[in-house]
TrEMBL record:
Residues 23-34 have a biased composition (Low complexity). Residues 1-22 have a biased composition (Pro residues). It comes from Microvirga makkahensis. It holds the Pfam family Extensin-like_C. Residues 46-218 form the Extensin-like C-terminal domain. This is Extensin. Residues 1-43 are annotated as: Disordered.
Length: 218
């Protein structure tokens, strides 16, 4: 099982303000500046939550190259005891937590409802990648370990499903539309087939922070 390699934390200092929560929607303290010291309490808390969720991961050293950065990176190989992720992918710890919650709370029940199957593998295209967004203006959330492209799923009792335009009225269409729609309450950007020309074969799920918690859900 995953053993976070973080050094032991110093005893708490009651005179210091509490570290910011690192749940969804909270600002990412780790991205505020170069992080070379010991892991923060927020970082350690996130790793502990991954363990509790049954996520299989390896803790990595903070990533910083060009403008790209991940403060608390993990390489994830499974999102639960029964659902692998292929290939193993690098992401920010808080992102991994959200991905695991989406799988457990959305994908598993919807697969059971619409496909009478349980997912066994999440097929990933791009996770962390240090490249410009397609528009060229800003770095993509992939550059911060805060975005993943979901290409499809494998299941225990049916053939794999690839994300694409599914035939209307099919169980596959109902499943894909449900998991895409419900991803919007967990991630701040959800793009898939039908959003634009770039997302015809995958779901892009990211956690970009915008003013007023504005979300893009298409
Ligand atoms: Zn993407």
């Amino acid at each position: 099982m995953a053993q976070p390699a973080a050094p032991p934390l110093p005893p708490p200092r009651p005179d210091l303000p509490a570290p910011p929560a690192d749940g969804p929607g909270a600002p990412k303290a780790a991205s505020a500046g170069p992080q070379t010291g010991p892991a923060t309490e927020a970082d350690t808390g996130c790793l502990e939550r991954l363990d509790k969720l049954g996520v299989r991961f390896e803790k990595l050293s903070p990533v910083q190259e060009k403008g790209c950065k991940i403060g608390n990176p993990v390489s994830v190989s499974a999102l639960s005891n029964t659902i692998e992720i292929a290939p193993a992918s690098v992401m920010e710890c808080s992102y991994a937590e959200n991905l695991a919650r989406w799988i457990a709370n959305v994908v598993v029940p919807r697969a059971s409802e619409h496909l009478q199957s349980a997912p066994t593998k999440l097929l990933i295209g791009t996770a962390y990648q240090c490249r410009d967004q397609r528009s060229g203006a800003k770095l993509s959330e992939h550059a911060f370990g805060n975005g993943v492209d979901v290409m499809g799923f494998e299941f225990d009792r049916r053939p794999p499903l690839r994300v694409k335009f599914q035939s209307e009225g099919s169980p596959e269409a109902a499943f894909q539309s449900a998991i895409q729609k419900e991803a919007c309450s967990i991630f701040t950007t959800v793009l898939g087939p039908g959003s634009d020309d770039d997302h015809g074969d995958h779901l892009h799920l990211d956690m970009r922070m915008r003013k007023g918690d504005y979300r893009i859900c298409q």
